[in-house]
Design goal:
Blueprint lengths: L10 H17 L5 H7 L4 H29 L1 H21 L4 H30 L4 H27 L5 H17 L24 H29 L5 H28 L2 H18 L6 H28 L6 H26 L4 H22 L10 H8 L5
Length: 402
């Protein structure tokens, strides 16, 4: 009797499934964190520090965590950093101690997240193969968008019982995500004992430096939106419910176009694709101050989302193609350093400029995006030389594995 073999679930599926579950739990924290600080007697400065602390810690940890990922492997960093995040979440759920202690625990969560991100992105590259790296990053982006849509609703619901419950949700979600990620194999490529290590001079490599500056520009703009968007729509007479709906609607094209967008980035000239994406995004940012109609604002946001869906996956695919397999974790850490650094700048500088004049923040964001488009036009590699996948590298060393 013929027995049909069930198709094996790919390791990338388990990696992305775990990330979706985890990110949904982490996103539950976002809308409630300011209320949590206020209940503990913190003012606007304490709220800003409570939110900015993890972001700054995340940025500072990226590069050393990337180096460690290349030395000890992807699995230890993925599982260990997320286990630490879950434990810290449960400590915050207990809600015991003064506000400074709780803020310290929250900052340590930023450290654990910073240790996790380079390993996550390096694993996505390892498990996607050289011909599907942008598609792999697009799928990762889509999973995070799903988490961003679901997480805040869960956070708002559990906060009706107890605001510290958002950390309990994050901790439980991370622990469940770890169950999926346990199925991920170690994908780190070891140095050949007879091969002399080559120093990774990323600042001289346009395939790393230019896309890193690109994700910095993107992080700058979208952290600005985090600060400015509610104020912008409120000034046009829209309620908090409408503001939340517009954010959800922005995520819809990201979900629908993630996979085809990733395939397009893998098969086309990335230089001109990024020039067009950055230019369209910049044009949209420049137009927002002139709009008053909610329908036009939503339509413009949809166009912007269609351009945005291509940028982050393509930028990180270029970084991965332009770095050696042995330096992949560090390369992802450098990209993360620029990305989170841009986010901190956008929130603190462009976000603050909204109080000076409504258009200044949007026009500043447009300038950053247009500058990124010009940089890509002159310096972004159109298509980095294809490197063999991790499996191909291993088969090349030992053909009997096939």
């Amino acid at each position: 009797m013929l027995r049909l073999r069930r198709p094996r679930t790919s390791p990338l599926f388990w990696l992305l499934s775990g990330q979706l579950i985890m990110f949904a739990g982490v996103a539950a924290i976002f809308p409630i964190a300011p209320l949590y600080v206020r209940r503990h007697g913190g003012g606007s400065l304490a709220i800003a520090l409570f939110i900015a602390g993890p972001l700054i810690a995340n940025m500072l940890v990226q590069v050393p965590a990337g180096r460690l990922t290349d030395r000890v492997g992807r699995r230890p960093m993925l599982l260990g950093s997320r286990a630490a995040f879950g434990a810290l979440s449960l400590a915050l759920f207990a809600d015991v101690g003064p506000l400074w202690l709780l803020a310290t625990l929250r900052t340590l969560q930023g450290v654990s997240s910073g240790a996790y991100v380079p390993a996550l992105r390096a694993a996505v590259v390892d498990l996607s193969g050289p011909e599907k790296r942008a598609e792999g990053f697009a799928k990762l982006q889509a999973c995070e968008m799903v988490g961003l849509l679901v997480g805040p609703f869960i956070g708002g619901a559990v906060a009706l019982w107890r605001d510290s419950a958002i950390f309990g949700v994050a901790g439980v979600a991370v622990l469940f995500g770890l169950l999926a990620m346990r199925r991920i194999p170690e994908t780190r490529v070891l140095h050949d004992a007879d091969e002399k290590p080559v120093r990774f001079r990323w600042w001289r490599n346009p395939g790393v430096l230019v896309p890193a500056l690109g994700v910095a520009a993107l992080g700058t703009v979208f952290s600005m939106y985090d600060v400015v968007w509610p104020l912008y729509l409120s000034a046009r007479g829209n309620s908090s419910l409408v503001i939340g709906i517009t954010i959800s609607l922005f995520a819809v094209p990201l979900l629908i176009l993630a996979r085809p967008g990733g395939r397009l980035a893998d098969r086309s000239n990335r230089r001109w694709l990024m020039v067009a994406s950055f230019a369209v995004s910049g044009g949209c940012a420049a137009l927002y101050p002139a709009l008053r109609s909610l329908g036009l604002i939503i339509a413009l946001g949809t166009v912007e989302a269609c351009a945005y869906v291509l940028i982050e996956p393509t930028m990180f695919a270029v970084i991965s193609d332009s770095s050696n397999a042995q330096d992949r974790g560090r390369a992802m850490g450098i990209g993360g350093l620029f990305q989170f650094g841009g986010m901190a700048f956008g929130a603190l500088v462009l976000g603050a400029l909204y109080g000076v004049g409504e258009g200044i923040s949007f026009w500043g964001a447009a300038g950053v995006l247009v500058a990124a488009a010009v940089l890509c036009a002159f310096a972004l590699p159109p298509r980095a030389p294809q490197r063999p996948s991790v499996r191909s590298e291993r088969l090349a060393m030992n053909p009997l594995e096939s």
